Amino acid sequence: MRYQITGKHIDIGEALQTHVQTELGAILDKYSQRPTDATVVFSKSGHEFVCEATIHLSSGLNAAAKGHATEIYAAFDACIEKMDKQLRRYKRRLKDHHKDRTEPVEFIGGASYILANQKDGSEESEPESLQPIIVAEMETQIPSLSVGEAVMQMELAGAPVLVFRNEKKDGVNVVYRREDGNIGWIDP
């Protein structure tokens, strides 16, 4: 397993790196999800330290968690507690409701665009053209999942929306978290 432990504008000492590898390794051994790599990023936001962790599992799914605290070790502990809860739920769902995936998740390529918002901030002004200004363009990966796995991946990543290719119907679908807390599924 590969660990990438970095800090944004702060120095990460050897003691913290060893602590992160030990604690993260213990959690991953506990759930034995065969992780391939883990990325942990520490940063400072005002008076708080922020720890963001992402673990890539061999099944193709990702688990992500974020923790805040006034001390860096406490921020990591809050983050790892959320990660532990997510992996516990993931393992329970796989065992109880889903078949074990024998093959890794398949990915297809896609394009991702970031569009510029209005310059003056007023919503009533008429745009000059109907073509939006593209600020950034990048490639992205679209996983091939079942609907249940897509919901699980969205929850593990902490994302509000997930675009995926439905394994059963071979079409592009979307799952998203609704304002009422339920999950929405768009199947065109």
From TrEMBL:
Record-annotated Sigma 54 modulation/S30EA ribosomal protein C-terminal domain positions: 131-184
GO cellular component: cytosolic small ribosomal subunit
GO molecular function: ribosomal small subunit binding
Organism: Sagittula marina
Subcellular location, record wording: Cytoplasm
Binding partners and assembly: Interacts with 100S ribosomes. Associates exclusively with 100S ribosomes, which are dimers of 70S ribosomes.
HAMAP family xref list: HPF
Keywords tagged on the record: Cytoplasm, Translation regulation
GO biological process, one term: negative regulation of translational elongation
Highest taxon of source: Bacteria
Family membership: Belongs to the HPF/YfiA ribosome-associated protein family. Long HPF subfamily.
Function: Required for dimerization of active 70S ribosomes into 100S ribosomes in stationary phase; 100S ribosomes are translationally inactive and sometimes present during exponential growth.
Protein name per Swiss-Prot or TrEMBL: Ribosome hibernation promoting factor
Pfam families, sorted: Ribosom_S30AE_C, Ribosomal_S30AE
Gene that specifies this protein: hpf
